[in-house]
Predict the structure.
Amino acid sequence: MSPLKTVPLLCLGLLATTGSAAATAADVAAISRPPAATPLVAHLYTADPAAHVFEGKLYLYPSHDIDAGITDRTDGNHYAMRDYHVFSMDDVGGPVTDHGVALELAAVPWASRQLWAPDAAYANGIYHLFFPARDRDGLFRIGVATSRSPSGPFRARPEPIAGTYSIDPAVYEDDDGAFYLYFGGIQGGQLSQWPGNCHDSTASPPLADAPATAPRVARLRADLLELAEPAREILILDEAGVPLRAGDQARRFFEGCWVHKYRGTYYLTYSTGGTHLLCYATGSSPYGPFTYRGMLLKPVLGWTTHGSIVNHKGRWYLFYHDTRLSGRNNLRNVMVAELQYEADGSIRTVEPPGIDASPAATGPQPHQ
Ligand code: FUB
């Protein structure tokens, strides 16, 4: 394990930039307080931040991006991550502590490569790190590793969680103490190869006018080590109650689910992939259906976008990533913005800083 490292973070808003010069007056009205243009972590490349409050602190569980010498590929193989670091902070805007390596690929018996976006959950005195990786057959699976500490080190279970597949696990603990595992990502994330929870490498993605491939959800067993039930599809509906179509690329699910609850309503947020948006949909059950409500985050620097939402000390934050440190799609850095909810429960769209300067957003599309 590498030693603890504390790095300074500039306060939210201190380095805020204005949004795109092309933004209309209506856009500007919809933008919340401009997020800071400063990455939270600059000594490593980090992405896909999953944020949680544990033991009174804000903990981040991001991917740890590396340059593995693989140029951008449509299958996502250039996201060749080999370990996870855990980070914590007492306050947003304060110093961020790097707790060192929390889990390495070499210590996961079933995994062969690509430690992608993780998440964490706490139950029964144990912290659980959920993570996707390719197994020995090249299929993405979701594993779990445990620790007595939120910062790890985590010990991986010998096998992936039975009944899981694809990528981007996110765990939501409901008010009644039940935990739900959300997962899935299309294209490079292989979700379309799993109709009915069975693997079919010949399965085709849906046609443009068919319902979009749906993310999955399953309640977890009380020990969080296995599913308590088969995974089911999550319906994301339009305003007329019709499932979003696969061709509706500005609104349909691509990857990166996250669920939080605000004033009794469940919010599902996700990335739209090639249209580079984080969107949100709301519902009255952790299983959905969810109704599309709008754009959460406009396109960031870089191809991928992925975020998590957490309440800390009474304020709501979106943790996300962009590529401002490297200009490369697979070397990302974690960012944060404060969220603002309207009285009707809608969330003001966040405009990330520096959008006009993106050198990477038009590059090869990593998950196609
Ligand atoms: O970090 C690798 C992949 O890129 C994640 O699993 C996706 O959500 C995207 O951010």
User: Anything to note?
Assistant: The longest strand covers residues 45-54. Helices lie at 25-30. The CA atoms of residues 267 and 282 lie 5 Å apart. Residues 47-48, 63, 79, 116-117, 167-168, 185, 255-256, 304, 306 surround beta-L-arabinofuranose (CB under 6 Å).
